[in-house]
Amino acid sequence: MTFARRHSFFIFLILGLLSAIGPFSIDMYLPGFDAIADSLHTTVAHIQLSLTSFFIGIASGQIIYGPLLDRFGRKIPLIVGLVIYIVASLSCALTNSADNLIIYRFIQALGSCGGMVASRAMVRDFYGPTESAKVFSLLMLVIGVSPIVAPTVGSFVITHWDWHGIFLVLAAITTCILLAVIFFLPESKGANSAISLMPRPIVQSYWQVFRTRQFFTYAFAGGLASSGLYAYLAGSPYIMITLYGLDEKQYGMVFAVIASALITASQLNRYLLNVYSSAKVAKIALIVQSSIGLILAFLCTMGTMNLFTMIVLIFLFLGSQGFVFPNTSALALAPFSRLAGSASALLGGLQMAIGALSSGLVSYFHNGTTVPMAAVMAGCASLSLFILLAGSPRPAGIHQDQTRR
């Protein structure tokens, strides 16, 4: 495989789209909760369980794909996962039962995991540990567009068709991605028959990854920082629409503005990495994020928060995340080559599990105020910083002159 081909824009685009399937599946149907609940003769709270089931599926499913990607290569498990996603999306579109929707969303999440795990592993395969942080920043450009585009597309579909159309659109988009994977995405690592799929070796492989100090520190630090985003996703519809009186269109605009912080920061990160190490950028970003989170929680607790201030603080909070995610992901995966698939799966599984927990905490402590969302966001960022400072491993697999800066 030539250098030009490996680094082509089209490869970046496919990997980015694979990474964005999960986030797009979450954000696109958020504006349709009321319509889905009315159509299926149930409550919005019941429909929210389909979001919870998606989080559970996307957290647990990634663990399944890790050994498969190491054993059979990257593309075959990826293609199988995309097919599962398409079938589950069509099932969601055709269902007339809220309970079935919850089940189908779980299966849909299992399918989307293939793209998320494979894309991270292929970044590690193609570009190695030194360039991975920059590549993850580029992928964030595609992933970050999801919160901007997806709610708008979802609102358009609901307005001109109905909520069933959301899942038909998701199936159509993923079919196009599947065709691109089959015909244009090169295999980054072939099958390895030495990798066993028996339970004991699989557990041993995951344990080998988990007990690596660098992985543990950066996976949990990055996962906790990311979970602040999921707390925002869980709490913002009620806060922005019910408490502050925004309509769906205004909420979509605010959502897009806040999401732009994530995109902008992730692209600035690429240039910062020419001067500073990934470890240093992640540390500074977490200090900023935890500080902003504490200010947000304090103002909400004191009852002095207004809509404009909240938007600004969340904008800065998620902007910090744009620096955290690419660097912690690259540093967590850097020590691994043979087990890159398992490491990618465990990284994603931990991140989504923590994200599901944070969104669940926002719902559990819901009291009709802004405090639960703000408190969870602040707690996640602060705990992330604590883990990073406590672990502070010397990054392995990164070029030596980077680690000295």
Automatic annotation (TrEMBL):
Q: List GO terms (cellular component aspect).
A: plasma membrane
Which UniProt keywords are given for this protein, alphabetically ordered?
A: Cell membrane, Membrane, Transmembrane, Transmembrane helix, Transport
Location within or outside the cell: Cell membrane
Transmembrane residues, as ranges? Answer: 47-69, 76-96, 102-123, 135-158, 164-185, 215-233, 253-272, 284-305, 371-390
Listed Gene3D superfamilies: Multidrug resistance protein D
GO BP field: xenobiotic detoxification by transmembrane export across the plasma membrane
Q: Name one GO molecular function term.
A: xenobiotic transmembrane transporter activity
Major facilitator superfamily (MFS) profile domain spans which residues? 11-396
| Bilayer topology | Multi-pass membrane protein
Q: Which InterPro entries match?
A: Efflux_drug-R_Bcr/CmlA, MFS, MFS_dom, MFS_trans_sf
Keyword Thylakoid present in the record's keywords: the answer is no
Read off the PROSITE patterns from this record. Answer: MFS
Q: Cite the PANTHER family for this sequence.
A: MAJOR FACILITATOR SUPERFAMILY, POLYAMINE TRANSPORTER 2-RELATED
Instruction: Give the UniProt family note.
Output: Belongs to the major facilitator superfamily. Bcr/CmlA family.
The protein in question is named: MFS transporter, DHA1 family, bicyclomycin/chloramphenicol resistance protein
Give the species: Parapedobacter indicus
Traced from the root, the source organism's taxonomic lineage reads: Bacteria, Pseudomonadati, Bacteroidota, Sphingobacteriia, Sphingobacteriales
